[in-house]
Amino acid sequence: MAFENVSIEKIKGFWDRRPCNIRHSEAKVGTKKYFDQVEERKYFVEPHIPDFARFSKWKGKKVLEIGCGIGTDTINFARAGAKVTAIEISQKSLDLAKKRAKIFGLQNKIKFYLANAEELSKIVPIEPYEFIYSFGVIHHTPHPEKVIKEVKKYCNQNTTVKIMIYYRYAWKVLWILLKFGESAFWNLDRLIAKHSEAATGSPVTYVYSKDQARKLLKGFKILDMRIDHIFPYSIPEYKRYQYKKVWYFRYLPKEFFRRLETHFGWHLLITAEYK
Ligand SMILES: C[S@@+](CC[C@H](N)C(=O)[O-])C[C@H]1O[C@@H](n2cnc3c(N)ncnc32)[C@H](O)[C@@H]1O
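Above: query sequence and S-adenosylmethionine SMILES. Below: predicted holo structure tokens.
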């Protein structure tokens, strides 16, 4: 495996330097306005997330979120009435997620833990959860299979698991190859990792075919596996909070773009049960 020797400290460092989505707002970081804008922008750019997470479905249920980042989805599970446990390896991300819970008066609905998902049971008490959710996290840790092994400890017959991992045959992979690949295409795994996130240089980013995802989730019954999400915006404008599509997507009929997304999107969305 391409990244198995990367240290967890390196992962922590990368996400502490720039927590996921931290620049999704111009407002002062940590304010209510800031968090509201982060949420609005995240779900505008990634509208499939609420559909996938189905926040309201988990009302009154025990939800375990792995890799909560700055807590956008976490807050929405809690708002919908779930009893949430959220874990994160990046202290800076976790601090912001905690602050967010407090600002929205949800601090009593969420238990936060600073934890490495590969060793979850060392920190988080083992008990069954009705829903285990992890969006865009497991592919960023050196040993994803260890996370899945840990996740199983929190499952029983009634547990639903939803994870998003990156899809190997994605438009984004082709884009990375075309834009940055001329001198390093033979080391595709590292090239993808370097350019996979908003901040350059992610130390670990695995990408999965559907078969590889099935192998990762061995022991689970896959209920649904689908592909979604192509980022269509021009990056310089996007950084200025303007949503202008790049020319080749601007003129593409909506239905055709949607088809592209569901066949060559970046997000592999998996729903499974532990049976
Ligand atoms: C792309 S962000 C996604 C964050 C959040 N799920 C979201 O959708 O906004 C990936 C997150 O995974 C966390 N992460 C990576 N490896 C981890 C590990 N081994 N244990 C816990 N969290 C981890 C990172 O710190 C980072 O916050």
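Residues 32-45 form the longest helix (14 residues).
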